[in-house]
Every structure is written in structure tokens, then in C-alpha cells.
Amino acid sequence: MIRFFLRRFVVAVLVALTVLTLAFLLTRLSGDLAISIAGPNASQDDIDTIRRVYGLNRPLWVQFFDWLGRAVQGDFGESYFFRDRVAKLIGERIPITMSLGLTGLAIALVIGLPLGILAAVREGSWVDRAVSLVALIGQAMPSFWLGLILMIVFGLKLGWLPISGTGSWEHYVMPGVVLAFSAIPSLTRLTRSGMIEVLASDYIRTARAKGLTRFSILVKHGFRNAAIPVVSITAVQLGFMLGGSVVIETVFALHGVGYLAWESISKNDFPVVQAVVLVLALLYIGLTLLADLLNAVLDPRLRT
Amino acid sequence: MSALLEVQDLRVTIGSTAAVRGISLSVNKGETHCLVGESGCGKSITALSIMGLLPKGSVRETQALRFAGEEIGGYGERQMEHLRGNRMAMIFQEPMTSLNPAYTVGSQMTEVLRRHRRVTRTAAVDRAAELLARVGITAPGLRLGQFPHQLSGGLRQRVMIAMSLMCDPELLIADEPTTALDVTVQAQILRLLAELQKDLGLGILLITHDLGIVARVADRVSVMYAGEVVESAPTVALFAAPEHPYTRGLLTCVPVPGKVKRDEPLGSIPGVVPRMQPGFAGCAFRDRCPEATDACAGSFPRQNMSNDHQLLCTLAPGWTGSAAA
Questions:
Q1: Shortest CA gap B15–chain A (Å)
Q2: Distance between the two ends of chain B, CA-based, in angstroms?
Q3: ipTM of the complex, rounded to two decimals
Q4: What is the rounded (10 degree) CA torsion for B126, B131, B137, B141?
Q5: Number of domains making up chain A
Q6: What is the pTM of this model?
């Protein structure tokens, strides 16, 4: 168990280092930073000054290790646009993005898992086909478009829910639903196929031969085993949601990390961009590691 | 005394296949009834249909399906749930996959008892430990906390047997319980089943294709072919005087030391069990039978050879149809 965890942990650290390097290099590839910071009317002198002040005249590898050294201590430098510490900017916005992601995930699980189980139990029936259709529609619908439709219907026409901002829990309902919709299809499909496979297994026949109740057979003996791959995909989906919140937060004007990313990309505020990419990637890596651990808890065969 | 289990004219169709075509058999208390035949002849389907565990899309019909004097043929899923695992239990051919990998042995064993009886968790654990010891597992306390993947196939089958006994069932259906195991383990498991039967008065319906097993444990044998019982007799009588060409064919497939000479080829029956369509007439074995006559394509009745020996064959002495034809 400890060896299993250590192995996963080492892999996670290596992935994190790779992402760190990529985050740094990609922002440098997008053009000469000094020129874009200085703006279109700047003179050559201004640009040179900016280069010197920000240390952009140093060799690339010196810049990288300087940034890396600070980043591991939680110091991501200062935003060129907001004139504030990047760590503080992100720290303020993380709770909003996390609330949104968790709301989306909760909605996705509450809808996706029962639908998948239902489709598996009624395999081949009209219920199964209806669930597949819903999953297909969910998959095909762009989230920004669904977001706008929901805003028009529930925000403007019916007036049930606020269409932007972060004042109360109600502000998270519509964006949460939109985020959930992107995750429901894969959760449902995976639950369905996993359940179909598990329900055909010998130990389900044993459970039936033991005279257990239908609920116990389906959930305790069935879903418990079908859940193992679902847990992995759930962690990946939450990662997607946190990353995908760039679009949703922009549509619903939620000032979370995604919105910050969008703002800083459009303003070429590269310390912020680097930090956001890094933070989201680290969250993703952390979630994958968590999924591995949860799998080990769920599947005793992984533990020994 | 009425039989513990009595099946009359059981028919099972799965899709367009007639898997079981009118089987009758009975199991008495304390008796082992063996159902023998090649793969695909409907033995397992017969077992599953008695338990009410047939796969989706199968249809079961019976004249009578009586368990402990009660007609259970019309029982719904709810009523069957209360019988299964409680008064009739089943063990399977695949010990490696028949236990749930996600739960400990203890949790899977206690679950049956707590489903059917009002007992405390501790009482259920005690009962499980007692039964594990009873089936010859050392350190039952340790095993209770282990997961199936930590046990060998033989141990898992012992756990399955112990689990099936949790509620003190009257009937145990064992579907090829030793097929997947080593020969030495096979012998241990068979001895165990025989012992348990003697101690607990279990009725056992044992399904197997292995005549060696039949000879050792069965009180009564029914030989199945293509969804029918072609010959049924007490074990001693059947081995002494097999009447059906199929039974005789099966017996020549088994080497008997002293009787079979070295280098002499063992017997075999050419061909495979046919897939039966509903409405098939005549003997299903006639295409593979060395003694088939034209009469075998017609219909003929089941004959009593002696008071306890039934045969479904045109060779039966009481059968005069061939002379008339």
C-alpha cells in the first residue's frame, strides 16, 4: 500500500515538474514579453527599461530557475496589470472556482450515476435508449451555448435565478448545471458499461443465490465494483471542470480563477497566466493522485 | 415420505433453444442425486431453474416444482428470495470468481445469515467462524478478515460451501463444485460434502460430468442428454447394468484400472450435444448412437426397467413399438 502510494506520488511530482517547465516556456513563446508589456506606443528605451526591470534580459535558464525557486515557495511574483501579488490574486479566487467545480460535480454525480445504473439494469429497453440519447445530447451541446440558453430561460424569462455574480448559493446553480452537463455523459456511459459487465459476473449470481434483496445486489455488490473506474473518471472530470471553468466563469461573470486566466491572457499578464496554469495543473495532478488512493480503498486487490 | 425436492416435467426455453425438455427428478432428505452429462446438455440450466436464477429471456414451465411439500413453481421473486440462501443454497463451478472481490470473506458470509435471520453481528461472525472451521479451514478468525484474492481456489470453494450452510439449508445444489480444482483438492471437497450431508441431513443435487465423482458420492444418478433424462437409477444399479447407449458410452470414456488394457484406446462418443429446437421429436442421441434404429425417430415412452430404474430408449425391453413399425 505504501509502495503503491509512493510510486504514484513520484509520478505525480514528475508530472508537476513537466507542467511547470511547459507553463514557463509557453508564455515565452507567445512573443517578446517586453514589447507586449510596453504597449504599441513605447519607445525602444522603454522596452529596454522594462527588459532590465523585469529581468527579461537574462538568459532563459536563469529566468526559469529564478521563477522556479520562487514558485516552489509560493511566490509567483507580481501581476503587471493588477499591481498585486499573484499568489494573493489566485488565493482570493480559488474558493469561487472550487465552489463552482464541486457544485458541478455534485450535480453530475447525482444525475449521472443513477442514470447509468438504470440504463444498465434495463439494458436494451427504451429506458436504456433514452438515457443514451440524453447522454449524446449532453455531449454535443457546447457549454457556453447551454449557459446562455439557461440564462435566457431561468434568468430573464422566469426570473428564478440570478444570471451573474457570486453573491449567494443561487449564483452557482446555473453555472453548476452547465458544468455538470459536460461531465454527465461520460459518467453515465462509464457507469452503464461497468454495471452491465459487473451484473453479468459470477459473484452477482452468488449474491442472487444468497437471496439478497435487489437493492443490495445492485448497489452493494454491483455498483461497489462498477464504481472503481468511475472514481478515476470523476477525478479527471473535476479537473476538466476546474479548467473548463474558464469558459463558464466568463459567461456567468464569476470572478474565479478561470475568469482571472481569461483576463490575464488578454492583457498578456504572464506571471498570472503562468501561475494559473500551474495551479490548475497541480489541482489536476492532486485529484488524479486522490483517485488512485480512492481506488486502492475500493479495490482490495490493489492494496496487497 | 415425500421428497424434499420434486421436479416434474421441467421445460426451459432460452430464445429459440429448448435447453431443458421435460425433466423429472427428485431429491430426498439426506440423499445425493447426481445429474450427469456432457457440457451443454442442460444440467446447469436445470439447477438454475430450480433456484429461480435463470438468465433473462428464458422461460420455465413445470407440471410441478415442489420443495419440502410446497409448490414453488408459481413463486414470485420476493418469495424465492426468502428461500434462496436460506432453505435452498447453491454453490458454483467457478470458485475463483464466485466471491465478490470487494468484500471480506466474513462480510460475505455474515450477510446471508443477517438477511434471513434476526441475529446480531457478533453472533453471525461466530457462526461464520464455526462453519469455516467445519469445512476444514484453519485459522478461521484470520480468514474472515481476508479478501477472496488472498485465498486459493480450494479455499474459496470451501468458503462458498461454508457460506451456503450459514442458514442451515435443507437442499444444496452443487453445480460442478470441483471441476475447477486440483485432483487432491477435489477429493477433499467431495469428502467434505459427504460428511456434511451425513451430519446435517442435507439433500444434495450434485451436477457433474465426472463419473468418478458419481461413483463415489451419489445415491442416485440421472443421466442427462440434450435436455432430457435418458436414464435414472440408483448408483449401484446404474454402474452394474447401464441400459442406455449414451450411459454406456459415458462409462467407456472412463478408464478402469484392470479392466482397460494398456495401449487400448479409451472409448469416446463421436459428435457433440446438438442444440435442440422446440418441437423436436424422437431420441436426440440417435445421430450419435451405435444402436439406433428407425424407431428412434418416432416417439416412445419412458420405461421402468425395475422398480427404481427408468430408461428413455427404444432398446427398453417393455417397448414393442419397433415390432409394430
A1: 16
A2: 41
A3: 0.86
A4: -10
A5: 2
A6: 0.81
